[in-house]
Amino acid sequence: MHKSNKTKERRASCTYLGLGLIAAPAVISGVILSSANTSAVDTVVDDININIPLSCSVSASGMDSHNETIANGTYVDDIGTTTMNIICNDNAGFSIYATGFTGNVIGATNSNKLVGTAASGNATIDTGTAIGPGEYDDVSNWAMKLEANPYESYPITVLSDYDYYHTVPGSFVKVATRLAATDVGEYAEGATLTSTYAAYISKTQGADTYSGKVKYTLVHPNNAPAPISLYLQDTTAVAAAVPNIGDSTLAKDIRDDKTYRVGKLEDGNIWLLDNLDLDLAASGASAVITAANTNASATALDALFNGVSGGGAGGNLAQDAVSDVGSYWSDSSVYPYIMTTYSGETVSDVTSVSVGGDWAMGIYYNLCAASAGSYCYDSDPSDVNVTEDICPSGWRMPTGGYDGEYSDLYDEYQSEDNQSLAFISALRLPFSGRGDSNGESYSRPGSYGYFFSSTYAYSGVSGVMLSNSGGYLGVDTSYGLSSSFGNSVRCVMDAN
């Protein structure tokens, strides 16, 4: 009885302590009774991620020092020196390509020559592998050489032929490289490359000031493909690159350096195989889009960018052009309107239509913008033949209508087995939809494609409309494309 009473007393004490009425924890049968057993503790974990993108850069000094007065029959080397510093923040290596760049067009006539200011087309100084008379006739020529800094820990390697004076290439040629798995150096000093030029002036070379450029381009990694040498504006070189039907190539627009696919199709014409993606509202666009590189006159472009009253065929640009892209206009057909909603996107981003590949949407333009400011009306025109547009020089918008180039091309492909994709697979016309006249929304992507043509009629035969209705792809020549809506632009090479 006595022992039993003590057990009851202990149990009573245990119950008393378990209520937490005293501060000190008590150990009963190996269990700790404390605040840790009766309350929760929150934990905060701060997740920090730092993304370091690949960075390659080329900087140069001494680029304005290449000026020399040379007497006839004289050879001069070391005509100024440019020092380039090249670095990438990885060890995948890189290569340096060079090309003559006279006139800002790679591969064009005389592109790798020094060109004089005289009107004569013969006012040039040729490139040459030898400097001075002797092996060759007494012909003016110029060349370039490259030198790496041998004292650097990981110097760049100058390729054979360019370690001494050699012809300036007319298209991109690899002139130096840094192999993969090469460290960037303890102090990330990069690699130094020095370029120097020389010239021999013949006894009969005409007096003039001759000038040219050499463009150096960094390519990463060191085994990546060479940069594109073709420019759309150099139509002779582009045509030579796609001589046969079915041939295709890549070419850049000199105005913004964007790359387009180009091909020769069954109608015998050379087409852009991508929608035009020229951003008229980009910073500095008015300076780089000129009558020399665009299918438009200086007058039309002035109206486009500067809001010239009365510009074009009866048009009236009432506000400063493309600087207000995206604004709502009560009569948007008057003002240049572009919309970049789909710029850089692909068909797969906006539709389930199975067309395969990367089909760029480009930019929407209203007629005022597409015609480079030459047709800006305060109401929809009933009949317009556009002779100026924002296609590159040497290119233009295709003709529309029943006998137009769009219809002719469709006739060439409509009998293919896969009719629903035959036309689109050749010309690569995506169902890009259109931009609405308020400049802020778009409609029908994946179902319809609207493309301006140079022959335009609001109420009758018009630019092309592609329909994916019922799996059938056709060219609708009876649908009027409102000049105020944003439609796609495709360009064809001008054969004239």
Question: In a nutshell, what does this entry contain?
Answer:
With 496 residues, the protein is an alpha+beta fold. The protein contains 8 helices and 28 strands. A hairpin with a 2-residue loop joins strand 1 and strand 2.
List keywords for this structure.
496 residues; Immunoglobulin-like; eight-stranded mixed beta sheet; four-stranded antiparallel beta sheet; disordered N terminus; alpha+beta
The outline comes out as globular
Q: Based on the structure, what is the oligomeric state of the protein chains?
A: single chain
Integer tally of domains: 3
Number of strands: 28
Global Rg? 34 Å
Q: In percent, how much strand structure appears in the residues?
A: 15-25%
The major beta sheet can be summarized as: 8 strands, mixed
Unreliable spans:
1-29, 310-320, 325-330, 351-356, 457-462
- Calculate the mean pLDDT score and round it: 75
Tell me the structural class.
alpha+beta
End-to-end CA span: 124 Å
* Count of DSSP-assigned helices: 8
Helix share bin:
10-25%
